[in-house]
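Hi support team,

I submitted a single chain yesterday and got back a structure, but I'm not sure I'm reading the token output correctly. Could someone confirm the output below corresponds to the sequence I sent? I've pasted both exactly as they appear in my results page.

Thanks,
R.
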Amino acid sequence: MIKIIIAEDQKLLLEGLTALLSKETEIKIVGEAINGKELLELCVRETVDLILMDIKMPEMDGIEATRIICKQYPATKVLILSNYNEFGLIVDALKVGAHGYILKNTSKGQLMEAIRKIMTGGHYYDDAVTKTILEGQRNQPEPLSPKISITKKEMEILKLTAEGYTSKEIAQMQNIKESTVNTHKKNLLDKFGMPNATAMVNQAHLDGYFDKA
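Hi R., thanks for writing in. Yes, this is the structure output for that exact sequence:
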């Protein structure tokens, strides 16, 4: 059972999403919030697997709420569900650790695909958002972060991490110790200057590292 909180300040959309997802047998809606502060209060009381997060909310917006959630509750996934397909907002959301970003005009099927992929360790961006990311990358005079020197082994670890594999699984695939994988991950986090693996993978994606691999 996937336990979900929906954070959305538009009452009609909040009710609609709750009704829509409540029909899915694999999902349980454990809370609703109309701003980031209410969301954080709910997270104290509820064990949450995934948060559907709006960006533009009063009192505390979705970017700041995502930053706090990803820091305080690293096991909780965050999927941004927004009206705004803007490169700057997408970058801000991914840098604080969001696991995916889709638009509110998405279909139910695509929403469920995003939820399932994220819950199995992956990341998800719908086609329109992916196009905006690619166009934004091309229009950047320089990469979003300074050029980082990554070894071949670190690149392999980074790609497998992005695909949702755990350190234990990566160790088995690479025929190395799990502690060695964790050392590589720590080195990558230090190089990217990111607080967690999700933010690191997002940054690598934004900087085009997977396009080059």
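A quick pointer for reading it: Residues 2-139 form a domain with the Rossmann fold fold (CATH 3.40.50.2300). Let us know if anything else looks off.

Best,
Support desk
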